[in-house]
Design goal:
The protein is mainly α and 818 residues long. The protein is built from 37 helices and no strands.
Length: 818
């Protein structure tokens, strides 16, 4: 074929003023070709590809457009903007279309006569003379050769194949067909000269605010894993739930995004599919190409990113049209103008032209080997434990999706923000080191939720209200670990960003978190599923101003590009948690403090010096205790006698002699009372009135709760070591077991003790009401994390809870066989 086609091509180019040569591809140097292309208004590869396709790709194109395509093909080949195989395919296709339209050279020249170009007419007469003299390629011979070529015709020595007129061969093999949504690609792989690289870098800087390889990589992973679609889809989901007046209020608050909001509301009103992921994924392919042209990505890296983009498109869309419509919706939102009406006009060529890069179906665009290579490439970038931490934390802070590593350099503003968060929000002091982070690792909380869910599944209902049971039944199949671990992950990111801790320490904790989550969840999808279910339930207990993360989690589950789908679970056989996992008995003992303080979900540990000072001052103010020795003496008093002895000796006898009680009260009321007598009088009145059922209840619970609360405080002050803490917690457990049989009985005793020993103040009734409500919340698990009593067996009582379906539970005490 080449002995006819290439000389024929050279002959036709004489009509454009070219000299007659044996091969047009060798006529001009690259610089000359670039200059000629510039004169034609073609400043780069993208514009060249569009012009070539528009000029010669349409079978209905006029003759002068095809002649222009022949010249463009020669110029592009000389400029190295199109690869030889594609050049050959385009030449065959153009030649076939021309000779089919014009069966003779004379007919071809007559179709060009309307241009009224004297130079072209003269060149045409010269071609006719040459053909009459049988010099050069005969038009009829070429036409016959093209028509006679069939499937069995082998390629000739120059590589020409008569069948290379299919769209599959007009464009390079590989993942770049998808880029035709932005601009077609005619050459790959490519070598970009330095001057052209600078042009592409300028383009990326101005178009995408990307200035360097690291920023490019962040942008590419952002487009793949989140992009613009994330915020748009969450807006759509949330606005769709609102009433019309609330939607208008939302729109009015958008300020400079008002046009975007109007387009989104239009989509909702028209029940348009709320999907625009193709807007991000087509641009992912485009940026991968531009990044290579800018010299910031290797050929292999660009192919992997482009392959990843196509893989994501194939997972979401059945064909190119569905992807193009999604892209058009995304572009509409981005530009703030509804472009659906011009879809057919703008996309007809790509979707319907036989020579389109998209003539190959979307499903056939990526070879399986390339798909697996792209997937492995992405997984390798997500295999670091820090990727788990950043992915989980990005649910709370979506901007973290731009980060690829916990150790990447940060600006001073971010470092200061993280430092303030640790200090002011978490109360995590620098002196505590990474050990201070352990108090935010709360396996007891996960145990509590898992146990509640297990009981609800079996309709146990003994430790939680019917409402809680109904809410939790759906959670029984999902370990609650992630509800605690996700907050720890966010705190770990802030700790890393603060610069307080060494990268080695942060990496160790990140590895620990990854190991634990990989142990409790088979994969990231299972983890997300558990998180979504638990978040839906737990968010019901949050205040109205707190936004549930359930929509965000659901988005990450749906979106195939989300970083969660590319995380690599840990396969470590040994693992160490980021914090201490208390035994079930230890956690039960700590929970005896009840609502005297906030629920403690982890083993107590010494605080930072400044926090110890504040806690010490509080203990001195409330209990007049100074130093470790004073605390130990008081703890011994509580475990051996406590306020319960005071009641038994000084007040219980009055319950048997009402007359004496009234007389004692009358005597004290008749004169001035010292502080001690005033307190005695107040308590006598409590006995008289049976305030808070103090005469009917065993108030030992009041001593037990104080014993535990103060022993924990002593450990936090570092006045008690672990052994001494265990001593007092064991004493509290023995007292509880000896005096009560259930948490409800214990709560009644605690309420009575709280009320009996409380001073009479104007706020007394309000305090009692709040304390009663807190006790009820602990008993009923309403809200779920109010306290732990609903998930624990009372000390010494038979086991009444169902076995959890998950391994994330607190261990029991070791037993010895004798």
């Amino acid at each position: 074929m080449s002995e006819l086609l290439v000389p024929w091509w050279a002959q036709q180019l004489t009509l454009c003023g070219w000299p007659l040569v044996s091969d047009p591809r060798l006529t001009l140097g690259a610089d000359q070709a670039h200059a000629r292309l510039q004169s034609l208004g073609i400043g780069g590869r993208d514009e060249f590809a569009w012009r070539l396709w528009e000029s010669g790709g349409d079978a209905q194109s006029p003759s002068f457009a095809r002649l222009a395509a022949l010249e463009l093909l020669a110029l592009g080949s000389a400029a190295n903007w199109i690869r030889p195989p594609c050049t050959d395919a385009w030449l065959v296709m153009l030649a076939r279309n021309i000779v089919e339209q014009a069966p003779t050279l004379k007919a071809w020249l007559q179709s060009l006569a309307s241009l009224n170009d004297p130079a072209l007419d003269a060149a045409g007469r010269e071609l006719l003379a040459r053909e009459r003299q049988q010099r050069g390629v005969s038009w009829l011979a070429l036409r016959h050769r093209l028509k006679s070529a069939g499937p069995s015709t082998p390629p000739d020595s120059a590589g020409f194949d008569a069948l290379q007129v299919r769209s599959a061969d007009l464009w390079p093999d590989g993942p770049w067909r998808a880029r035709a949504a932005i601009a077609p690609v005619l050459a790959w792989p490519i070598d970009i000269p330095p001057d052209e690289q600078r042009q592409y870098r300028t383009l990326l800087r101005e178009q995408d605010d990307v200035d360097g390889r690291e920023e490019l990589l962040s942008s590419l992973f952002w487009l793949a894993g989140q992009g613009h679609r994330y915020g748009w889809e969450l807006d759509a989901v949330r606005v769709a739930r609102q009433r019309p007046e609330a939607q208008l209020e939302w729109l009015s608050g958008l300020s400079d995004q008002h046009d975007y909001g109007q387009v989104l509301l239009g989509f909702l009103a028209d029940a348009e599919p709320l999907d625009w992921a193709a807007w991000d994924w087509f641009r992912l392919v485009d940026q991968a190409y531009l990044g290579h042209c800018a010299g910031w990505l290797t050929t292999e890296e660009a192919e992997r990113f482009a392959g990843h983009g196509i893989d994501l498109l194939q997972q979401r869309y059945p064909d190119w049209e569905a992807a193009a419509r999604a892209y058009q919706r995304g572009r509409s939102l981005f530009e703030g103008r509804d472009l659906r009406a011009v879809f057919d006009e703008e996309w007809r060529g790509l979707l319907s032209t036989a020579t389109s890069p998209w003539a190959v179906p979307l499903a056939d665009t990526l070879e399986e080997e390339a798909r697996e290579a792209a997937r492995e490439f992405v997984r390798q970038h997500r295999e670091d434990p820090g990727s788990w931490v950043l992915s989980i934390a990005s649910i709370r802070d979506p901007d973290l999706v731009h980060r690829r590593s916990l150790s990447e350099p940060l600006g001073p503003d971010r470092i200061q923000e993280a430092e303030r968060y640790l200090e002011d929000v978490l109360g995590l002091r620098r002196e505590e080191g990474t050990a201070g982070l352990a108090r935010f690792w709360m396996p007891a909380q996960a145990h509590h939720l898992n146990q509640l869910a297990a009981d609800s599944r079996h309709a146990a209902g003994r430790r939680s209200s019917p409402g809680a049971s109904r809410r939790l039944a759906v959670c029984a199949d999902h370990a609650a670990t992630i509800t605690m671990a996700e907050k720890y992950a966010f705190y770990l990111v802030m700790a890393s960003d603060s610069g307080r801790y060494s990268p080695v320490e942060i990496e160790t904790l990140a590895r620990s978190l990854c190991d634990v989550l990989s142990r409790f969840y088979r994969d990231a999808e299972r983890m997300l599923s558990a998180w979504q279910v638990w978040e839906t339930v737990l968010s019901e207990d949050e205040t109205p101003d707190e936004v549930s993360l359930a929509d965000d989690i659901a988005w990450h589950r749906r979106d195939p590009g989300s970083s969660f789908h590319w995380l690599t679970p840990s396969r470590s056989l040994t693992w160490l948690e980021p914090g201490v996992r208390p035994t079930l008995a230890r956690f039960t003992a700590i929970s005896l403090a009840g609502p005297l303080n906030e629920a403690l979900w982890q083993a107590p540990q010494p605080l930072a010096p400044q926090d110890r000072e504040a806690l010490g001052e509080w203990i001195e103010h409330q209990y007049s205790l100074q130093g470790a020795s004073g605390l130990v003496d008081f703890l011994d008093f509580l475990s051996e006698a406590g306020d319960r002895q005071d009641y038994q000796i000084n007040y219980a006898p009055y319950t048997l002699n009402r007359t004496r009680l009234e007389a004692e009260i009358a005597i004290l009321e008749s004169g001035e009372c010292a502080e001690e007598d005033r307190v005695h009088l107040m308590r006598l009145k409590h006995v008289r009135d049976n305030a808070c059922h103090c005469n009917d209840q065993d108030m030992t619970a009041w001593d037990i709760a104080q014993l535990v609360d103060l022993a924990v405080a002593g450990r936090q002050l570092d006045w008690l070591d672990e052994a001494r803490l265990s001593h007092y917690l064991d004493a509290a457990m023995r007292l509880a077991e000896r005096h009560y049989s259930s948490w409800r009985d214990y709560a009644e005793g605690l309420y009575s003790g709280f009320g009996f020993f409380m001073d009479d103040t104007p706020e007394r009734e309000a305090f009692l009401l709040r304390f009663r409500e807190a006790l009820s919340a602990w008993l009923e698990a309403e809200p779920l994390l109010a306290g732990a009593w609903a998930s624990l067996d009372f000390p010494g009582s038979p086991m009444t809870h169902w076995t959890s379906l998950h391994v994330d539970i607190l261990p029991g005490e070791p037993h010895r066989l004798h």
